[in-house]
Amino acid sequence: MDLVPALKEPLDQPLKSVLGPATAKVMAEHLGLHTVGDLLHHYPRRYEERGQLTHLADLPMDEHVTVVAQVADARLHSFASAKAPRGRGQRLEVTITDGSGRLQLVFFGSGVHKPHKELLPGTRAMFSGKVSVFNRRLQLNHPAYELLRADTDESVETWAGALIPLYPATAKLESWKIGKAIQTVLPSAQEVLDPLPDSLRDGRGLVSLPEALLKIHRPHTKADIADARARLKWDEAFVLQVALARRRHADAQLPAVPREPAADGLLTSFDARLPFTLTEGQRKVSKEIFDDLATDHPMHRLLQGEVGSGKTLVALRAMLAVVDSGGQAALLAPTEVLAQQHHRSVVEMMGELAEGGMLGGSERATKVVVLTGSMGTAARRQALLDLVTGEAGIVIGTHALIEDKVRFHDLGLVVVDEQHRFGVEQRDALRGKGKQPPHLLVMTATPIPRTVAMTVFGDLETSVLDQLPAGRSPIASHVVPAADKPHFLARAWERVREEVGNGHQAYVVCPRIGDDADEPAGARKSGAKKKSPEDEAEKRPPLAVLDIADQLVKGPLHGLRVEVLHGRMAPDDKDAVMRRFAAGDTDVLVATTVIEVGVNVPNATAMVIMDADRFGVSQLHQLRGRVGRGSAPGLCLLVSEMPEASAARQRLNAVAATLDGFELSRIDLEQRREGDVLGQAQSGARSSLRVLAVIEDEEVIAEAREEAARLVAADPELTTLPGLRTALDALLDEEREQYLDKG
Q1: pLDDT at 265 (0 to 100)
Q2: Strands laid side by side in the 505-509 sheet
Q3: E strand or H helix at 116, and its extent?
Q4: What is the pLDDT confidence band of residue 307, given thresholds at 50, 70 and 90?
Q5: Per mean pLDDT, which range of 344-358, 384-398, 498-512, 602-616 is the poorest?
Q6: What is the distance between the alpha carbons of residues 703 and 260, in angstroms, rounded to a whole number?
Q7: Residue 315 has pLDDT above 80, yes or no
Q8: Exposure winner among 43, 83, 145, 390, fewest CB in 10 A?
Q9: What percent of the chain has pLDDT over 90?
Q10: Contact residues for 309 (Cβ-Cβ < 8 A; gap 6+)
Q11: What distance lies between CA 29 and its chain's CA centroid?
């Protein structure tokens, strides 16, 4: 994907040559800003209107804030301390107000002199610091401040315009210092190359990029801000979609062997053995896949399906079609437990069709082998031999499949389960295994809103399975408020006993394993990842599998057969535990999220998720999909100690209220920042999206995708658009290359 060398930009100039080394160093280390262009794209978080002040009443605790307010009064106190035993210690207390609330500023020691002279009652200034509470009152200790005076030219110039931009800042660099730095580099914005083609810009009434940059940093009216944001959103959406369109275009140029099922082959025999008919959705998606497989360039398709919508069956039929045409198919699973399990269920579904070359196998049969890192040498050698000779039509395995030693006879299709755990290197390594690039089908059980699919998986075509097969039971979900109503938790364990009494099984899921290697001591001390003042529930470490299993065996589930399963067990032990559970020899499985994907035990009807607030919305939905897989109704209990009013509890209520994964994925997205969703593979704290919001800007993304596809079809090398090439280079620099190639 080499682009014609782009024009050198004034924006590539390093900040240290413009701003001075000290400021540039802080910007690089704390904000990830290295060039003039980076700084120009560091947009204000919000704007203060002159005369309209921040509401001091709603200041967040423990956060770095910038407020504009007026000094109400200032008092200097003397006190005695170890450093100043004769009562010569000085403390300046300044009260500021904005009409909605008051805030105390405190300065100590020699730091009192300058503010004592400058912060006179009636003075207006911008103050910046970390909000804390002292004697039940909000205060800022030693805040940095900038006086807003109308008398000197410099400050009139700096604060000209009615709107004061407030930037995402850090303790080391206040918002107004960033603002001043931006004023210094703003003239360079005039020379910036515009990535949008003129026709597109004019057709949509968008302002030019230099104008947008000027308006977002120095708006005179709210309309300026709206114009700038509308334009900058388009830039982000469009450049990203062009990158993805070029990737799709490049993929479409690759050759592939068309694979069509034989008229009366393996697939026909398989369909004939199915004890049920395919759902309408499964038929529709299968047709999309078979149409792709029949073409002479590689399929790149994302198969999204709700938990339990029968994705594996659709993927297996595609694999059988490829085996029919003389090729081989590989299914890649993220963990050994899952690879073993896929192998078991595929062999089960295929019956004698999976016994190629064995007595009792059908004459149309093929061999299905499994390949994982922890296999014994002899078994591994045999599996490798079956692959290279073509004896095995289907192989199921983990990353071990990608190793150099693995050779295929004729690899025609790769199915990847749970996309986000496979990076670009794996995809390329697998491509190299075929004589020509194999077709690719990616399966995910995490429902992804359409716009995220267009953004994160934009180089894949998407198929969606949204019906559940007949005979699936509904899952009742309830939140169990363990702190407010402990008797609810006792009742939860009774419900588990009742399910077991009726011949069913249950899962208990915990966030942590519980041996000391679990996480660094610091992480344990602070509890969850974030230090939240929510309440005590956050401060203790998350509940652990080993502790909970122990308590249950001794207490509420005494007498039941309880086993544990977690990621640090040896693969053979994990497999043995899963087999016993699947066979019904265990009543209750206490596990971490290793059971999140793909574990299929139709007899398991109940799940209790401990510390449910420590999991994301989509993850809870995934976990819940493990119950209610048979004909008996499922029950999922979300246990939490968080208080009724907390955001965490609202999240759990949302999960309990709907079984629609797409609805939940929207809620999940709205609650997390887009950066988390798009940035699982992005290093660094900066999401490449700054003003584009994946959910709200659905239309912009959809339109940008169409425009990008049109443009790339007409001019794949972008020969006429130097500005767009430059923007692409910036987007595809080393840290984001990874992210775009996440597929």
Answers
A1: 87
A2: 475-481, 634-640, 604-609, 505-509, 588-591, 562-565
A3: helix 113-118
A4: low
A5: 344-358
A6: 34
A7: yes
A8: 83
A9: 21
A10: 281, 465, 466, 467, 468, 469
A11: 24
Closest CA to 17 of 9, 8, 25: 25
Measure the CA–CA gap between 251 and 329, rounded to whole angstroms: 19
Tokens encoding 330: 């590989």
Span 515-548, pLDDT tens digits: 655 443 333 333 333 443 344 444 567 778 888 8
User: 513-519: which pairs have CB atoms within 8 A and are 24 or more residues apart?
Assistant: 513/544, 513/545, 513/546, 513/566, 513/567, 513/568, 513/592, 514/544, 514/545, 514/546, 514/547, 514/548, 515/546, 515/568, 517/568, 518/544
* DSSP symbol at 173: B
Mean pLDDT, residues 205-233 taken together: 91
Q: For the chain, count helices (H), then strands (E).
A: 28, 21
Other beta carbons within 10 Å of 184: 15
Name the least confident of 450-464, 477-491, 494-508, 681-695.
Answer: 681-695
CA dist., res. 156 & res. 369, Å (int): 75
What is the rounded distance in angstroms from the CA atom of residue 576 to the CA atom of residue 274? 28
Contact call for residues 603 and 584 (beta carbons, < 8 A): yes
What does the alpha-carbon distance between residue 324 and residue 266 come to, in Å, rounded to a whole number? 6
Q: Which among 120, 172, 103 has a CA at the least distance from the CA of 144?
A: 172
**Strand order in 392-397's β-sheet?**
367-371, 392-397, 328-332, 411-417, 439-444, 300-305, 461-465
pLDDT digits (tens, 9 = 90+) for 111-149: 888 888 989 998 888 887 778 888 778 888 888 888 876
